[in-house]
Automatic annotation (TrEMBL):
UniProt entry keywords in alphabetical sequence: Aromatic hydrocarbons catabolism, Membrane, Transmembrane, Transmembrane helix, Transport
Localization of this protein: Membrane
Signal peptide per UniProt: none
Domain Major facilitator superfamily (MFS) profile: 27-433
Gene3D superfamilies given in the database record: MFS general substrate transporter like domains
Molecular-function GO terms, alphabetical: transmembrane transporter activity
PROSITE patterns for this protein: MFS (PS50850)
Topology of this chain in the membrane: Multi-pass membrane protein
Predominant subcellular localization, coarse grouping: membrane
Coiled-coil blocks: none
Protein species of origin: Pseudomonas moraviensis
Name by which UniProt lists this protein: MFS transporter
InterPro entries registered for this protein in UniProt: MFS (IPR011701), MFS_dom (IPR020846), MFS_trans_sf (IPR036259)
Length: 448
C-alpha cells in the first residue's frame, strides 16, 4: 500500500513539474517581450529630449513634468484596471492594454507643443495602467508560490533588457527622416505601432485559466489547479477571515511596502530619464553612440539581478539582499556627484546594478505577506504608489536643472532615500498576516 501511495505521489509531482515547465515556456517569453516593448514606449523620451527642445521648445522643466505625468495617469487607473482584468480575463484585458498604449505611443509622433506632450504622456500612463500587476496576478493563477519568485525575476529582467536595447534601437530610428517627419517622430511612431502589432499575437497566445490551455494535458491542468488551490486553502485555514480591503489599506506593512517601492522607483526613473543627458556631456557623440553607452548600466543590472536572485534563493533572508542592493545603489548615486561626467557615468553603472536588483528582489516580500484573495488589488496599489516615484524624480530633476543648472542635489537625495529604504525593509514582514490582526474584517463565505 505504501509503495502504491508513493507511486501516486511521484506521478502527481512529475505531472505538476511538467505543467510548470510548460507554463514557463509558453507565457514567460511573451511576457518578457511585452515588458520590453512596454518599457521602451514608456522611457524612449529620454533619447529625444534635446530634439524636442530644438523642434518644439520643450525645456528641462517641461520635459521633466511631462515625463512624470505618465505616472499620474498610471497611478490613478492602476487599481481599477487590475480589477477589470480579474473580471474580463487576462487575455482580453492585456490585449486591450497593449493596443491602447501602442496607439498613444505612436501618437507621440504628432505632438506640436508642450500641451500635446503633457496630454499624451498622461494618456500613455492611463493606457498602460494594470499591465504590471496584471502579469503578477496572472502568475498567481498559473504557478505555485515556490515558482513565482523565479518567474517574476525573469519577467522583471525585461525592463533591464529594454533599457539595454532601447538606446541603440532609438539611436538608429532617430536617423530616419522622410515624409515630412523628423527622426524623433519616426522613433515614436515605429515603436508604438510595434506594440499594436504585438497585441494581435497576445490575443491568440494567452489563455485566461489553466483549464483553457490546450497545450497542457488534462492531468497537467488538474495538477496545476489543485496545487494552486491547495496553497490558497492552506492560507485561508491560517487566516479564516476574508481580509477587509479598507482595513488592509491602513495596514502598517502595506504602507511600508508602498514606501520601499516608491524609493526604489525614484532612483530607477531618475537614472532612466536623465542618463542620456549625462552621457551627452561626456563628449561629442551621435544619437546611436549615446544609445550604446546608455546600454552599459542596464547590461550590468541584468547580471546583478540574476546574481542577487541566485544568492537570495540559496541563502534566503530576502530583506538582507534587498537592503544590500539598495546600499549599492546609494553608494553609486553618491559617487556620481564627486567627479566629472565620465566618473558620474561609471558611478551610475554601479548604482544601476543595485537599484534594478532591489526592484526584482522586493516583490516576493509582499507576495508572501498578502492573502491571495486581495493580493492582486494590493499589488496594484503598491505598484501605483511606487510608480509615483516616476513622477517625482523627473519633475524634480527638471526643475533643478532649469533653475540651478545642475542635478547634483537630486543625486544626493536619491542616495539618502536608498539608505532609508535599506533600513526600513527590515521592518517588512515576509510571513502572512495572522487572522487575529484582521479584527473587523469581513467574514469569509462558507463553502458548501
Amino acid at each position: 500500500m505504501k509503495t502504491s501511495v508513493s507511486g501516486i505521489n511521484e506521478g502527481v509531482d512529475s505531472t505538476l513539474a511538467s505543467a510548470i515547465s510548460k507554463v514557463k515556456r509558453h507565457v514567460l517569453p511573451l511576457f518578457v517581450i511585452m515588458f520590453i516593448v512596454n518599457y521602451i514606449d514608456r522611457v524612449n523620451i529620454g533619447f529625444v529630449r534635446t530634439h524636442m527642445e530644438h523642434d518644439l521648445g520643450i525645456g528641462a522643466a517641461a520635459y521633466g513634468f511631462g515625463a512624470g505625468l505618465f505616472f499620474i495617469g498610471y497611478a490613478l487607473f492602476e487599481v481599477p484596471s487590475n480589477m477589470l482584468l480579474q473580471k474580463v480575463g487576462a487575455r482580453i484585458w492585456l490585449t486591450r492594454i497593449m493596443l491602447t498604449w501602442g496607439l498613444v505611443a505612436a501618437g507621440m509622433a504628432f505632438i506640436q507643443n508642450e500641451t500635446h506632450f503633457y496630454i499624451l504622456r498622461f494618456l500613455l500612463g492611463v493606457a498602460e495602467a494594470g499591465f504590471f500587476p496584471g502579469v503578477i496576478y496572472y502568475f498567481t493563477r498559473w504557478l505555485p508560490g515556490a515558482e513565482r519568485g523565479k518567474a517574476i525575476a525573469i519577467f522583471l529582467s525585461g525592463s533591464a533588457v529594454a533599457s539595454l536595447i532601447s538606446g541603440p534601437l532609438s539611436g538608429l530610428l532617430l536617423q530616419i527622416n522622410g515624409l515630412g517627419m523628423h527622426g524623433w517622430q519616426w522613433m515614436y511612431f515605429i515603436e508604438g505601432m510595434f506594440s499594436v502589432g504585438l497585441c494581435v499575437f497576445v490575443w491568440f497566445w494567452l489563455d485566461a485559466k489553466p483549464h483553457d490551455a490546450k497545450w497542457l494535458t488534462r492531468a497537467e491542468q488538474d495538477a496545476l489547479v489543485s496545487a494552486i488551490d491547495d496553497e490558497q486553502k492552506a492560507r485561508e485555514a491560517a487566516t479564516p477571515i476574508r481580509p477587509s480591503m479598507a482595513k488592509l489599506l491602513k495596514d502598517r506593512q502595506i504602507i511600508l511596502f508602498c514606501l520601499i517601492y516608491f524609493f526604489i522607483q525614484l532612483t530607477i526613473y531618475a537614472a532612466t530619464f536623465w542618463l542620456p543627458s549625462i552621457i551627452k556631456k561626456m563628449g561629442e557623440m551621435s544619437d546611436f553612440q549615446v544609445g550604446l553607452f546608455n546600454s552599459i548600466p542596464w547590461l550590468l543590472s541584468i547580471i546583478g539581478m540574476y546574481a542577487f536572485a541566485a544568492f537570495s534563493a540559496k541563502w534566503k533572508h530576502q530583506q538582507a539582499w534587498v537592503a544590500t542592493a539598495l546600499l549599492i545603489a546609494a553608494a553609486g548615486m553618491f559617487m556620481s556627484t564627486t567627479g566629472g561626467p565620465i566618473f558620474a557615468f561609471v558611478a551610475i553603472c554601479f548604482a544601476a546594478l543595485g537599484f534594478k536588483s532591489a526592484s526584482s528582489l522586493f516583490w516576493p516580500i509582499p507576495q508572501a505577506y498578502l492573502d491571495a484573495r486581495i493580493a492582486a488589488a494590493v499589488i496594484a496599489l503598491i505598484n501605483s504608489v511606487g510608480n509615483l516615484g516616476g513622477f517625482v524624480a523627473p519633475t524634480t530633476f527638471g526643475l533643478l536643472e532649469q533653475h540651478t543648472g545642475s542635478i547634483q542635489g537630486g543625486l544626493y537625495g536619491l542616495a539618502a532615500t536608498s539608505i532609508i529604504a535599506a533600513i526600513i525593509v527590515f521592518a517588512a514582514r515576509t510571513t502572512p498576516k495572522p487572522a487575529a490582526d484582521l479584527a473587523g474584517a469581513e467574514a469569509a463565505p462558507k463553502h458548501a
